[in-house]
Amino acid sequence: MALNTEINLADLTSQFRGLNLNEPETWPAAPRVLFAILAAAVVLLLGWQFYWSGKFDELERQRQEQESLKQAYQSKVAQVANLDALREQKKQVEQRVALLERQLPNKTEMDALLADVNHAGVARGLQFELFKPQAAVIKPYFAEIPVNLRVTGRYHEVAQFNADVAALSRIVSMQNLQLANTKDGGLSMEAVAMAYRALDPEEQAAQRKAAAAAAAAKAGGPK
Q1: CA 52, CA 59: separation in Å to the nearest integer?
Q2: Does the domain at residues 107-206 carry the CATH identifier 2.110.10.10?
Q3: Which parts of the chain are coiled coil (predicted)?
Q4: Is the pTM of this model over 0.70?
């Protein structure tokens, strides 16, 4: 048995000796079979290189596109999830704006508001040496009415007057306060009581027109 195997191996080896590379058709069976196997392997390798590698590249591009779409989807989902929170914030802002607007008197109510400021000082025993409303300053959403005033009294009376003005149902802010001692031991206070009122329809229309003109000028400006 061993002798037969050695003879077969010797015969197989002898088939690979003296091969003419230019005439493969004259080769014995064993070299031709091995050559065919190697040729098939080369064909498969080249096929993978030129076909399957392109397919893998396309698959990778599709995977990246899928990942990009996934991220875009997650972003949209996050926006939708935040939509309710944004709506609630918008609602709260609108409620605060409505509350502030209710605290703004209209033109016809301004005299009553200024009278309330004056009454708050008189009720605390202060002497008004100056109480002079100035012209309204129109802002985009409201108007400011500065009132120059000067009062004299005792320290705690002046402090209580400022607290009373701050507690009014309408918005009034004390600005540019200047305090000085008087000759009789009292206190003098000069300030600007800034009152605010809502715009009337004509003023609102004028503000919208001015805002539109400003936006148009900005849009048509140098690029």
Answers
A1: 10
A2: no
A3: 56-110
A4: no
